[in-house]
Amino acid sequence: MNSPLHPLAIPTLAAGSAVGQVGASSGHGSNWVHPLLEERAAPGCGRGAFATSGIERGALLVVYGGRILGQEELESLSPEMQGYPYQVEEGLFLGPRDELDIGIGERLNHSCEPNAGFSGPIHVIALRAIQAGEQVTIDYATCVAGDLDAFRMECACGAESCRGTITGEDWRLPAVQRRLLGNFQPFLQRKAREQAALRRARCLRPLARLGRAVAAIAAWAVRFVSQSCREDWGAAVVSCMAAMASNLATCFIMEAAAPRILNLGVAQGAGQEIALIAAVTPLVGYATYLAAYYGGMVWRERRDFIRLGAVIPRAFRRKLKVIGCDLLAHLPSDLIVLPILGAAQGSLAVAGASQFWAIFWAQLLADCAYAWKEPLFWHGAKRFVAWRERAGSNVRP
Q1: 135-138 and 109-110 beta bridge pairing
Q2: Rounded Cα–Cα distance for residues 56 and 128 (Å)
Q3: CB 86, CB 13: distance < 8 Å
Q4: pLDDT at 27 over 90
């Protein structure tokens, strides 16, 4: 196909005219052409470049000369001559000097599966072995960069991956870049890599936002833990004291209650009796711990709601809300700890420990799990209650 590009084509490569050179056999021209290439009629494409004998992969096929044209110079050419220069840089084109300078190099037609491609701004090489009589083709996406209206041609190359319509935007296609990026014009390689960098940046942007969010959450968590330990470290002390009291109380309560529980006749055999006591004990321990712990915290922070020996109702209700929030925050983890506590107690009993010591050591395990986290939960509950009060005061008329 020898028709030139649309006169407004910004990138250029005639739709079948191709890159410029006069064949070596012509004896004149600005380019060097492999001696085994000749110009022939190409069915459906006007004229084309063909191999007269086999050419090995990597062989240099064309070295372009001619002259460099700016955009205005290109547009000043005749419509026919505008079809032969090809783009080598933004706003710069390389083409034949005149009509007499048009030769075999200008006859490299397009194929969506080319056997030749650029190796630098002015070199064309064989991308694979080219058989005798085979037409030499390039993919115009490797040297045409423009908008959809600047360059458009119908393709009938017959390749399995034929794109049907060739445009100045085809260099952006991922499939084309995967196969031929190394054979793009250097300025197009640069544009493609910039495009890839922008895509990566867009993909990484959510990760960057996530990273900033994680960092902000981590910083908040560090501040929260620091404030909890600084302002409410006493909760850990109260927890340890409550745990000791709860531990002993649970042991004595269960020592006294176990015979009565077993006399109910619910359990049959030693194994079921151990399981029943192991199921009841954590509940008793939990109840005694909560009573001891929250009683201790109310006593420790009594100055928050007692003034001059009198209880301030509103402040006392606030303290009860803190206790409620703290308990609700504990429940999810407590529902996990209680069965583990029962299993630990049952295991100790099966191992031969007496009921008293099985309960004591199992409760001690739970005490260790509670003490370290109490400052965090208590501090969080107080902050939540204060936040709810502020939010409520802001919406009142």
Answers
A1: parallel
A2: 7
A3: yes
A4: no
What is the H or E stretch that residue 374 is in? helix 374-395
The residue with tokens 């509103």 is 314
Beta-strand relationship, 116-118 and 123-126: antiparallel
Task: Give the integer Cα–Cα distance in Å for 396 and 61.
Answer: 84
Q: What is the pLDDT of residues 201-244, one digit of tens each?
A: 888 888 888 899 999 999 999 999 999 889 998 888 888 888 88
24-185 homologous superfamily = SET domain (2.170.270.10)
- pTM for the model: 0.53
> Which of residues 334 and 7 earns the better pLDDT score?
334
Q: Among all chains, which residue has been given the structure tokens 């008793």?
A: 284
Which of 88, 104, 95, 99 has its CA nearest to residue 39?
Answer: 104
Q: Are strands 116-118 and 67-70 parallel, antiparallel or unpaired?
A: unpaired
pLDDT number for residue 25: 38
Percent of the chain surpassing pLDDT 70 = 80
- pLDDT at residue 19 tops 70: no
Domain coordinates in residue numbering, the chain: 24-185, 232-395
Helix (H, G, I), strand (E, B) or coil at 307: strand
- Is the CB of residue 356 less than 8 Å from the CB of residue 281? no
82 within 8 A of 12, measured Cβ to Cβ: yes
Residue 207, classed as helix, strand or coil, is helix
- Nearest CA to 66 out of 29, 105, 104, 34 is that of 29
